[in-house]
């Protein structure tokens, strides 16, 4: 039927708001009566819908609930432009083969998704809509785990389950390489010639423009050196790999940012590399894990406000949200900021800075965000995550 089960919807809504940034494009597949469009209305998301049964579009006023509504079949619809897919009461309407292909495509593309299914529910066509027929009537929590192991159970009961796939299953390793550059001092001297600018408050300190704009040769050499740490054999083969990245020099005055940094993820990237270019050891990077299943992004507005007012006393609210942010995570690893040390980690890894160093010495780093890496011959890249799926 076009009406989704109402149980746990407020919890699902809260999970989406807390875990999916509003700049992510959302697609609701088979919206039916449009319940997910209603759930996300007013929260800043762009939500599109694709509906296979066109009479539902007018019957349930779907164009009023979504930014764009398309008539189409999810088995052939292009979802590559979307960051978050909602499959609410969809999988049970597909054959096991078609559903498996769809879930595999979504997860292999690292598109995050929410899946909702009824358990052991028989259903035929509804008011002439043959697409309402259930083709997987045997779904249970155990069957879902066996058929779709990439999905994690979010919540549910004996009759219904909500599952998620988050782009935080680590596929990139954590690395630490000392003496990374042959001549780190030359890199530091080069950095001094560049212009720096404060940002919009989402990160501390000042950054240069991306080095691919400033000096494409420097960008190619340094990013290739980082990629070589991951694929030392492939990088030597001419044009075997190509990548998309942004890279900045960043300097931070500890006097302007005397507190710890906020713990966060680099959600726009695949993996992050940091090269420390100053010698102070106590302003490195820490990696964290969440203490509970729900991350809290409520600090972002207060962070922006206070980071933009660098020379003013931090507000009481800022201190409260920083404390809440720090208390939500458990530290699992710490890197000291030795000069010429390069660290690399999956961008979905929570990370932060314990402090930015002494008052009279700027913290200088070269930060690279890698947004994609691929083989030009079309062969898949090798990751630990897809080399041994069974274990």
Descriptive report:
There is one protein chain. The longest helix is centred in the middle third of the chain and has 15 residues, at 216-230. This protein has helices at residues 9-19, 35-40, 55-59, 96-108, 141-147, 184-192, 211-214, 216-230, 300-308, 316-327, 384-387, and strands at 25-29, 46-51, 68-71, 84-88, 112-118, 152-156, 160-165, 175-177, 197-198, 206-207, 241-252, 271-276, 285-290, 329-335, 342-346, 350-352, 363-375. The model has no long low-confidence stretch (mean pLDDT 88). The protein has two domains: 9-165, Vaccinia Virus protein VP39 (Rossmann fold, 3-Layer(aba) Sandwich); 175-375, q2cbj1_9rhob like domain (Jelly Rolls), CATH 2.60.120. The chain has 391 residues and is an alpha+beta fold. Strand 4, helix 4 and strand 5 form a beta-alpha-beta unit.
List keywords for this structure.
7-stranded mixed sheet, alpha+beta, globular, Rossmann fold, 2 domains, 391 residues, 24% helix, single chain, 11 helices, Jelly Rolls
Taken in chain order, the helices and strands follow as: HEHEHEEHEHEEEHEEHHEEEHHEEEEH
How many distinct beta strands? 17
CATH class category name of the largest domain:
Mainly Beta
> Reading side by side through the largest sheet, how are the strands ordered?
3-2-1-4-5-7-6
Tally the helices.
11
Q: Secondary-structure map with pairings?
A:
Elements: H1 9-19, E1 25-29, H2 35-40, E2 46-51, H3 55-59, E3 68-71, E4 84-88, H4 96-108, E5 112-118, H5 141-147, E6 152-156, E7 160-165, E8 175-177, H6 184-192, E9 197-198, E10 206-207, H7 211-214, H8 216-230, E11 241-252, E12 271-276, E13 285-290, H9 300-308, H10 316-327, E14 329-335, E15 342-346, E16 350-352, E17 363-375, H11 384-387
Parallel strand pairs: 1-2, 1-4, 2-3, 4-5
Antiparallel strand pairs: 5-7, 6-7, 8-15, 9-10, 10-11, 11-17, 12-15, 12-17, 13-14, 13-16
């Amino acid at each position: 039927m076009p009406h989704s089960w109402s149980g746990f919807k407020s919890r699902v809504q809260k999970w989406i708001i807390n875990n999916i940034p509003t700049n992510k494009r959302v697609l609701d597949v088979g919206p039916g009566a449009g319940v997910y469009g209603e759930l996300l209305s007013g929260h800043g998301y762009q939500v599109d819908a694709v509906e296979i049964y066109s009479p539902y579009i007018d019957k349930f006023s779907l164009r009023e609930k979504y930014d764009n509504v398309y008539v189409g079949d999810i088995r052939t619809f292009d979802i590559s432009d979307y960051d978050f897919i909602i499959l609410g009461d969809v999988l049970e309407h597909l054959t096991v083969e078609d559903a498996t292909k769809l879930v595999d495509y979504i997860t292999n593309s690292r598109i995050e998704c929410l899946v909702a299914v009824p358990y052991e529910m028989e259903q035929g066509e509804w008011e002439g809509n043959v697409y309402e027929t259930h083709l997987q009537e045997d779904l249970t929590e155990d069957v879902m785990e066996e058929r779709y192991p990439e999905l994690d159970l979010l919540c549910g009961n004996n009759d219904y389950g909500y599952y998620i796939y988050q782009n935080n299953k680590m596929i990139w390793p954590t690395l630490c390489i000392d003496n990374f550059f042959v001549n780190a001092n030359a890199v530091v001297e080069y950095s001094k010639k560049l212009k720096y600018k404060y940002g919009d408050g989402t990160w501390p300190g000042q950054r240069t423009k991306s080095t691919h704009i400033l000096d494409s040769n420097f960008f190619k050499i340094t990013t290739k050196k980082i990629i070589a740490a991951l694929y030392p054999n492939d990088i030597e083969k001419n044009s075997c790999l190509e990548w998309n990245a942004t890279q900045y020099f960043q300097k931070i005055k500890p006097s302007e940012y005397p507190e710890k940094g906020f713990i966060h993820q680099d959600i726009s990237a695949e993996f992050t590399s940091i090269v420390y270019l100053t010698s102070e050891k106590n302003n490195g990077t820490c990696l964290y894990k969440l203490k509970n299943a729900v991350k809290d992004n409520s600090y972002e507005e207060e962070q922006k406000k206070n980071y933009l007012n660098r020379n003013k006393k931090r507000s009481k609210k800022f201190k409260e949200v920083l404390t809440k942010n720090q208390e939500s995570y458990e530290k699992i690893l710490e890197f000291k900021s030795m000069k010429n040390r390069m660290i690399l980690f999956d961008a979905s890894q929570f990370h932060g800075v314990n402090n930015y160093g002494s008052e009279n010495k700027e913290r200088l780093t070269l930060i690279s965000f890698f947004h994609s890496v691929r083989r030009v011959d079309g062969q898949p890249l090798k990751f630990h995550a897809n080399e041994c799926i069974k274990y």
